[in-house]
Amino acid sequence: MPGRKTPLVTEHIYHVVNRGVASMPIFLNNSYYQRAIEAFLYYQNQNLSLRYSYFIRQTQNKRVEMLDLLRQQSDFLVEIIAYCLMPNHYHLLIKQLTDNGISTFMSKFANSYTRFFNTKNKRIGPIFQGKFKSVLIKNDNQLLHVSRYIHLNPFSSNIITNINSLNQYQYSSYPEYINPNIKSLCHKDIVLSYYKSKNSYQNFVRDHSDHQRNLQSIKKVMIDFEE
Q1: How much helix, strand and coil, in percent to the nearest 5, is found in the chain?
Q2: Which structural domains are found in the chain, ordered by start?
């Protein structure tokens, strides 16, 4: 498989996205979303001493415990800063920590989730629309606006119709950004350090919600994809 035209650079942050083939739904219900989120959290780790097939056979509490132990080791391919899963696509804001870290992470996730999806639906073949797309985050302002764009996806796509309900969308990192009682899965301090409080970040997101929903060209503005 040919390499990327623009290599992904270690210690840099990227907005990464992919969608289903022909925009087909790839997250069909809660179990699909949860499987994908768990796979993201599992495969961000660099040196895994156990197979994913063993990991997923454990109870939910045991899997949470195992993920906590892996997180404490701080041996990551990437840091997940923010994410949002939508019915037919996903967004990630991630920092590459090792050479080829993002590519390795995304390949492991795609292979694992594709096997899961195809087994559940008795199908064969790819479910993702080619390689993932990525955009380099070039400055702090872009970082903050992309995090907001990612978190507003359920609202701008009308999955969540009331902005006040956005924090109830459980397939996004937004709830953990604004609710101190939700366990943190992301390395979100890099974003929240620019705000006095989580309420300040919440206001930053909400203040742009109607504009993002109405702006038809927002994807071209925020995601000028490159290979």
Answers
A1: 50, 15, 35
A2: 13-221 (3.30.70.1290)
